[in-house]
Amino acid sequence: MSGNDFESLEKILEAHVPEAELRDVRTLLFGRELKKLSLPQSAIEAAAEQDFDLKGYVFEASPEQLRPPRTVRVGLIQNKIVLPTDAPVLEQITALHKRVGEMVEVAAMCGVNIVCFQEAWTMPFAFCTREREPWTEFAESAEDGLTTRFCIQLAKKYNMVVLSPILERDEIHGGTLWNTAVVVSNNGNVLGKSRKNHIPRVGDFNESTYYMEGNTGHSVFQTQFGKIAVNICYGRHHPLNWLMYSVHGAEIIFNPSATVGSLSEPMWSIEARNAAIANHCFTCAINRVGTEHFKNEFTSGDGKKAHHDFGHFYGSSYVAAPDGSRSPGLSRTRDGLLVTELDLNLNRQVADKWNFKMTGRYEMYAEELKKAVQHDFKPNIVKE
């Protein structure tokens, strides 16, 4: 069995760990055991017919005397590209709209309030090629582009907040490209956008060939279902990036990504979960799935032969809670929809227990970081 073939860690555990020990193993890996969410039979049948993984879990909080539960249902969608990478651009976009639209319909059957798609969901993750054409043709307006208009329709139809990460073309500023998540409210209004703060320069992630670091800071969006933020892909490797979304009040931070197994899979299950713990909030990690092949060969600058693919996108999307618990992941090999019911009261309950924010020395960190970014900074190293 190759690393690209096995479906999930959970499936391997179920197949090889005796039932008597399996519960303890799951607790060590995933934290407290989560209840499975009861999903409508119509949704289960639709997922089977459309051939995608469907899972549902519940993150409960303790009952309180003064606050009622603040429950919200979140849907994470991971998917392969639908057409070959050399198909006409508009056909590729339209095919992905159709596929993801069908999955959103199932999310609506499951009562989802907020849905988030994977990074650059309307296109192949072609930035490995370093070619400009045709990939820049996938870029569109965040405010009124084809995909945003499509998401507005979804939001209105299903009374659902839609988070749509796209390749943005900013015509107001000379057609500049950005890696951007568009936030559409459940009323169908574009609440705003959040641009990718950190751009990778590692392996085949040649993204700075196309766009640079974002300039929208750490926006948090007040929705009917809670305060949310979008920390795109590579930003998950930066603890201070998560922190700043939390400082601005995010209760759920989404991390739409596109990352391959050879580079990041051992880190995947740790980073968003650690961010949930450290910042007293929920985090949602979404990764695309499949292997995308490109017509022209490209090299990685590592001395190895030219190749036609980036590697295997391993899916495994999951949700993590501030108490350290997390859902099992979606499939490593199949499209999928993960539905989770979150009680946002858990954020404050965990904060009251652990007090990470209260005990954080932010004024001290800020002062020392202010000095550290100066050209004449001298590290505080005590020598004999």
TrEMBL record:
<feature type="domain" description="CN hydrolase">
    <location>
        <begin position="72"/>
        <end position="344"/>
    </location>
</feature>
<dbReference type="InterPro" id="IPR003010">
    <property type="entry name" value="C-N_Hydrolase"/>
</dbReference>
<comment type="subunit">
    <text>Homodimer, homotetramer, homooctamer; can also form higher homooligomers.</text>
</comment>
<dbReference type="GO" id="GO:0033396">
    <property type="term" value="P:beta-alanine biosynthetic process via 3-ureidopropionate"/>
</dbReference>
<dbReference type="GO" id="GO:0003837">
    <property type="term" value="F:beta-ureidopropionase activity"/>
</dbReference>
<keyword id="KW-0597">Phosphoprotein</keyword>
<dbReference type="InterPro" id="IPR036526">
    <property type="entry name" value="C-N_Hydrolase_sf"/>
</dbReference>
<comment type="function">
    <text>Catalyzes a late step in pyrimidine degradation. Converts N-carbamoyl-beta-alanine (3-ureidopropanoate) into beta-alanine, ammonia and carbon dioxide. Likewise, converts N-carbamoyl-beta-aminoisobutyrate (3-ureidoisobutyrate) into beta-aminoisobutyrate, ammonia and carbon dioxide.</text>
</comment>
<comment type="similarity">
    <text>Belongs to the carbon-nitrogen hydrolase superfamily. BUP family.</text>
</comment>
<comment type="pathway">
    <text>Amino-acid biosynthesis; beta-alanine biosynthesis.</text>
</comment>
<dbReference type="InterPro" id="IPR050345">
    <property type="entry name" value="Aliph_Amidase/BUP"/>
</dbReference>
<dbReference type="Pfam" id="PF00795">
    <property type="entry name" value="CN_hydrolase"/>
</dbReference>
<protein>
    <recommendedName>
        <fullName>Beta-ureidopropionase</fullName>
        <ecNumber>3.5.1.6</ecNumber>
    </recommendedName>
</protein>
<keyword id="KW-0378">Hydrolase</keyword>
<keyword id="KW-0963">Cytoplasm</keyword>
<dbReference type="GO" id="GO:0005737">
    <property type="term" value="C:cytoplasm"/>
</dbReference>
